[in-house]
Design goal:
The protein is an alpha+beta fold and 318 residues long. The chain folds into three domains: 5-91, 3-Layer(aba) Sandwich (Rossmann fold), CATH 3.40.50.20; 99-116 and 186-316, 2-Layer Sandwich (D-amino Acid Aminotransferase, Chain A, domain 1), CATH 3.30.470; 120-184, ATP-grasp fold, A domain (Dna Ligase, domain 1, 2-Layer Sandwich), CATH 3.30.1490.20. The protein contains eleven helices and 13 strands. It has helices at 21-38, 50-58, 77-85, 94-101, 103-112, 129-140, 166-174, 218-222, 237-253, 288-295, 300-316, and strands at residues 9-13, 41-45, 63-66, 120-123, 144-148, 158-160, 180-184, 188-197, 202-203, 207-211, 227-230, 258-267, 272-278. β8 and β9 (202-203) form a beta hairpin. α1 (21-38) packs across α11. The longest helix has 18 residues, at 21-38.
């Protein structure tokens, strides 16, 4: 559903109080500039400021452009507020956002849809976690990955190579979340596949991520020169098609609308493993979604316009 940007007032919602506030602010700044370039009337609102939330309630706004990352914005809470207010918003809905944000719960739905994901165990209490994680490693082999269940941007994620590193990794993860996921480490090439659309969703060109560090951690994601993005990824026709289809299947399994971005590993045998799905991908100058869109011939302002169109299409039910 094509829109006339000049007729729409967009609220860019960014900031908040999560551990990813700074990244959210950067995404908001990039999106605000692109939306203004596309011709939209744009207002910036920060959920950390009560007066901004009062302004959101009083409106009126035609659509909310979400640039929230982490808890309190990417996890369905902001989406729920916007549902109550009757304001269309970019990205997936409440259930999809909450499920994708929770790495433990999202794996349940990956499994139901037959989506390959590394075996894992969820730890719900710090007491006894060390022995459970060690038993998991004994069964599946070292290294293992320890990660908070509901944090993004690789916050608190550790690759643990040996038993003597395990306790510290668990402490760091539990400091960020009450639930921790321990997962079998899959060595290989890291790729990410973004999907756009509602009923007629399509995959954007695949990006292969070549991180400077051991894996695609926080620094690799956001520091200048932290990683190299190869887009389109040099995978060959068959593997490219498999990865795109897998991203579309993941988008559907989590009932995503508008946009999603699924991170995967290609192991030494050429098999694909889904790690996680992002429902509000980053929108900074170094972010993956704008890179993939550019490779498809979609400029940053055009990408933001599409996200607004999908939001309004979803609200209208057309």
């Amino acid at each position: 559903m094509p829109v006339d940007p000049k007729t729409l007032h967009v609220a860019v919602i960014a900031g908040g109080t999560s551990e990813e506030r700074d990244i959210s602010l950067a995404s908001g700044a990039g999106s605000q500039e692109a939306l203004a370039e596309a011709g939209f009337h744009v207002t910036w609102l920060d959920p950390a400021r009560p007066e901004d939330m009062k302004q959101l309630v009083e409106g009126p706004y035609d659509v909310a452009f979400l640039c929230m990352h982490g808890k309190g914005g990417e996890d369905g809470t902001m989406q729920g507020m916007l549902e109550i207010l009757g304001i269309p918003y970019t990205g997936p809905g409440v259930w999809s956002s909450a499920t994708a944000m929770d790495k433990v719960k999202s794996k349940v739905f990956y499994g139901r849809a037959g989506i390959p994901t590394p075996p894992s165990v969820a730890l719900n209490a710090k007491e006894g976690a060390l022995s459970l994680a060690a038993a998991f490693a004994q069964e599946h082999g070292w290294p293992i990955v320890v990660k908070p269940a509901t944090e993004g941007s690789a916050l608190g994620v550790c690759i643990v190579d040996s038993p003597d590193q395990l306790e510290r990794a668990l402490d760091e993860a539990f400091a960020l979340d009450a639930e921790v996921l321990v997962e079998r480490f899959v060595s290989g090439r890291e790729i990410t596949v973004a999907v756009l659309g509602n009923d007629e969703a399509f995959a954007l060109p695949i990006i292969e991520i070549v991180p400077r560090n051991k894996f695609y951690d926080f620094e690799s994601k956001y520091a200048p020169g932290g990683s190299q993005h190869l887009c389109p990824a040099p995978l060959g026709e068959e593997l490219t098609e498999q990865a795109m289809n897998l991203a579309l299947a993941t988008h559907a399994a989590l009932e995503c609308r508008g946009v999603s971005r699924t991170d995967m590993i290609i192991d030494q045998d050429g098999s694909l493993w889904v790690l996680e799905t992002n429902t509000l991908p980053g929108m900074t100058s170094t972010s993956l979604l704008p890179d993939a869109a550019r490779a498809a011939g979609i400029s940053f302002p055009e990408l933001c316009t599409k996200l607004v169109e999908y939001a309004l299409e979803e609200k209208s039910g057309s």
